[in-house]
Amino acid sequence: MTTAPPALLSPSSLFSLPPAEVEARLADPARLARGLGEAGDDAPEAAIRRSAVLVPVILHPEPAVLLTLRAATLSAHAGQVAFPGGRIEPGETPEAAAIREAAEEVGLDPRLPRIAGRLPAMVTGTGFHVIPVVALLDPPVTLTPEPAEVAEVFEYPVSRLMDPASPERRHGVFGGRAREFWAWPHETQVIWGATATMLRSLALALRDN
């Protein structure tokens, strides 16, 4: 499949950034460091597993972030919105792991991502220490999702990340515990949890304030 520019969700042009400006802002290490890595529920140190995800920004005329919907048959986080990613293998850098996982999950050509840098790492409640690796992609981007891992690939407009009213802070009960979490608006998907937190870090890197 070849990705196409996403249908813009309102608001659109009010918060849009041209591709060159998105690229320039993401090339600034100080901007990438703005986000705060967030810890999930406490996990024993021995259970923490190092992993990396690719945060792909496609430089359409209206730039967008590539996201996946995990397959419903997976043993962990089934049916959730995520970035391509997984465990860092021995001897791998986070960048190499993120690119490898993206190739395995969505068929992204490993030669295409241009690494911009890293967003702040975070620890999830499931015991993963996640390093988000931001990569720039020039369109068109052709993908072949692995159906055993990915049910759908879709794009989230950068203009939505620029909206100061987003994301929302929500409350819920998970595993008998009350939790607060970030959630980004979308017409058909629920974007929350670690993915929403990483999108928030990306938004803080892109925004002026």
UniProtKB/TrEMBL annotation:
Gene3D superfamilies: Nucleoside Triphosphate Pyrophosphohydrolase (3.90.79.10). This is CoA pyrophosphatase. Residues 48-178 form the Nudix hydrolase domain. Its cofactor is Mn(2+); Mg(2+). It holds the Pfam family NUDIX. Belongs to the Nudix hydrolase family. Keywords: Hydrolase, Magnesium, Manganese, Metal-binding. CDD domains: NUDIX_CoAse_Nudt7.
